[in-house]
Amino acid sequence: MEMPRIQIGVMGSAGGKMDEQVVEHCKELGRAIADEGCAIITGGCPGLPHFAVIGCKERGGLTIGVSPALSLQEHVDLYKSPTDHIDVMIYTGSGLMGREVIGVRSCDIVIIVGGRSGTLGEFAIAYDEGRPIGVLTGTGGVADHVDDFLPVIQKGTGSRIIFDDNPRRLIERCVTSFKEHPPVIRQRESSL
Predict the structure, then answer these.
(1) Strand ranges (DSSP E) for the chain?
(2) H-state helical runs in 4-145
(3) Residue 134 forms beta bridges with which residues?
(4) Residues 5-20: tens digit of each pLDDT
(5) Which among 85, 107, 135, 172 could disulfide-bond with 57, CB atoms 3.0 to 4.6 Å apart, if both were Cys?
(6) pLDDT score at 145
């Protein structure tokens, strides 16, 4: 049986000041995802994740957006989010927080770059569900503080966290780790 394409989520700052070097790192993340033959998943939002989408499309990669909106019009008008460079858009109608759960659960690997409160929530979901997480250090925000709050969590979930300041090397390390040690995602108890 052929394995499906690995889906890598890029979670990070959708707004605020965008440092040009961090923007380029995000584009390189996207290029590396495409070069590894993986698909990229984002929240369909602007900012750092969208720059990764742009980089992925430069290399002909598959791009997927998980929108908080119920429709294209709401995605663009209410959430002020882009549609360019996105091959597949999934409209959840779940709002920003609901979209985070769906987005993270759709990923095999989650990458954290920069980030504010939404990214922190996505990190928490990924960590709690035992997903492999890559952290692109040197990008500010949540990404540069994961080491500060990890000791406080004190919860073994099986999540493996890889830190690197080089976007291409981070993707390569995460994909290699995923292939060598596929995560064991805990099954939810059935109510049947």
Answers:
(1) 7-12, 39-42, 62-67, 88-91, 109-113, 133-136, 161-164
(2) 20-35, 48-58, 72-77, 95-105, 117-128
(3) 111, 162
(4) 999 999 999 988 889 9
(5) 85
(6) 96
Tokens found for residue 117: 């409160």
Task: Say if residues 12 and 41 touch (Cβ distance below 8 Å).
Answer: no
Say which residues have a Cβ less than 8 Å from residue 58's Cβ, sequence separation at least 6.
27, 30, 31, 34
For residue 192, which amino acid is it? L
CA nearest 161: which of 121, 106, 124?
124
Would the pTM of this model clear 0.70, i.e. be above it? yes
CB atoms < 10 A from the CB of 137, how many?
A: 16
27 residue type, one letter? K
* Cα 39 to Cα 80: distance, rounded to the nearest angstrom: 24
Count of helix runs (H) and strand runs (E) in the chain: 7, 7
Chain centroid to Cα 7, Å, comes to 9
